């Protein structure tokens, strides 16, 4: 067996380059004192470091108060978004792309989120400090833990609009309110007067923004008085029978939000199909967002596209600029990006009558195909 070679040290570089260890430290650490060194001396030190395969200790660099060019990434959910179908995956891909462009590596933190029967470690959020700064995302925010990091001037950027900590927490979000307004106004422009909005049951800020946009779109279209109550559901109660009841009372268009799990949106699409209805001929459907990987054999849904990769890149850029002390105006510290409207194939004019729809749905019921 061969013995393991010791890790090269700065004193080894000094010996090979024929300089003092202090000179090596000045050159490799980029300290102001290195400015006065001869170019030939600096070159010899770098050459010796390359030849010996020297790599600076990131922990030592962190303790010395310097950057080690590591960006942390963490999501407050039970599983890290490495599945390409996860709605958070494009955010991560954008962060990785921009970090690499600017010479940074990523550290993925997973211990601050619960997993199955295992609660988050008590020190998990504190461990984020191993990186120079951290990018966070997730529908819910542990305000107290994040506030403590901000109190210590630890650089953070959140992907998604947050208002729990006011101007203290930088973020890059999507303008869900305006995008949702556009979708509803599009449906109203097609002639729909009864539009039902289905959202997730929690009080996530992104869901609230979408609901605000839906109500704004209804108001702009003059449908406020006829707007039905917003339905909150995790999906279990969205059955074919439920869909038929809504259609029989005059609903001609459904709007559903997509989230990290999209439970309500997926349940609604299954229920519409189970009710024997087709879109857009029988009923229209629009999604406030889109599936990262579209379901097989499904049409292109009417709605809007969230610029996830662009948000990830912008978040990485913002965090790096905060780390290097660049001037960052307030409008960029808390920025909202536009979402692109998608006309899709699932929205059209409302049917002239519901008689045909009711006949088909009752036939379905007789065949025992209710959920």
Automatic annotation (TrEMBL):
PROSITE patterns per UniProt: HTH_LACI_2 (PS50932)
Record Pfam families: LacI, Peripla_BP_3
Region (Disordered): 345-371
GO MF term set: DNA-binding transcription factor activity; transcription cis-regulatory region binding
Keyword entries, A-Z: DNA-binding, Repressor, Transcription, Transcription regulation
Regions of compositional bias (Basic residues) in chain numbering: 361-371
Xref: Gene3D superfamilies: 3.40.50.2300, lambda repressor-like DNA-binding domains
SMART domains on file: HTH_LACI (SM00354)
Residue stretches making up the HTH lacI-type domain: 8-65
Protein known as: DNA-binding LacI/PurR family transcriptional regulator
Organism: Actinopolymorpha rutila
């Amino acid at each position: 067996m061969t013995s393991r070679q010791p890790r090269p040290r700065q004193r080894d570089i000094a010996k090979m380059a024929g300089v003092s260890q202090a000179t090596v430290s000045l050159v490799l650490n980029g300290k102001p004192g290195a400015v006065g060194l001869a170019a030939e001396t600096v070159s010899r030190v770098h050459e010796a470091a390359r030849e010996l395969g020297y790599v600076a200790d990131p922990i030592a660099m962190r303790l010395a108060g310097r950057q080690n060019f590591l960006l942390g990434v963490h999501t407050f959910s039970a599983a890290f978004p490495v599945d390409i179908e996860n709605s958070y995956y494009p955010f991560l891909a954008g962060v990785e792309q921009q970090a690499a462009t600017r010479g940074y590596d990523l550290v993925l933190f997973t211990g601050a989120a619960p997993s199955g029967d295992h609660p988050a470690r008590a020190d998990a959020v504190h461990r984020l400090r191993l990186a120079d700064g951290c990018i966070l995302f997730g529908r819910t925010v542990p305000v107290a833990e994040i506030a403590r990091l901000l109190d210590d001037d630890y650089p953070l950027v959140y992907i998604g609009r947050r208002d729990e900590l006011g101007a203290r927490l930088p973020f890059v979000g999507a303008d869900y309110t305006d995008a949702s307004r556009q979708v509803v106004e599009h449906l109203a422009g097609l002639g729909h007067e009864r539009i039902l909005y289905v959202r997730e049951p929690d009080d996530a800020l992104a869901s609230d923004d979408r609901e605000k946009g839906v109500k704004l779109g209804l108001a702009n279209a003059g449908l406020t008085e006829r707007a039905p109550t917003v339905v909150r559901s995790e999906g279990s109660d969205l059955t074919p029978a439920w869909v038929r009841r809504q259609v029989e009372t005059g609903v001609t268009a459904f709007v559903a939000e997509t989230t990290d799990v999209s439970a309500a949106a997926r349940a609604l699409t299954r229920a519409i199909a189970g009710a024997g209805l087709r879109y857009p001929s029988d009923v229209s459907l629009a999604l406030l967002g889109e599936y990262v990987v579209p379901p097989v054999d499904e049409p292109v849904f009417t709605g809007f596209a969230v610029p996830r990769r662009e948000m990830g890149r912008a978040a990485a850029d913002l965090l790096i600029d905060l780390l290097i002390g660049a001037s960052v105006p307030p409008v960029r510290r808390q920025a909202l990006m536009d979402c692109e409207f998608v006309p899709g194939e699932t929205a059209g004019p409302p049917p002239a009558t519901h008689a045909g729809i009711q006949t088909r749905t009752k036939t379905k019921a007789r065949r025992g195909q209710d959920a």
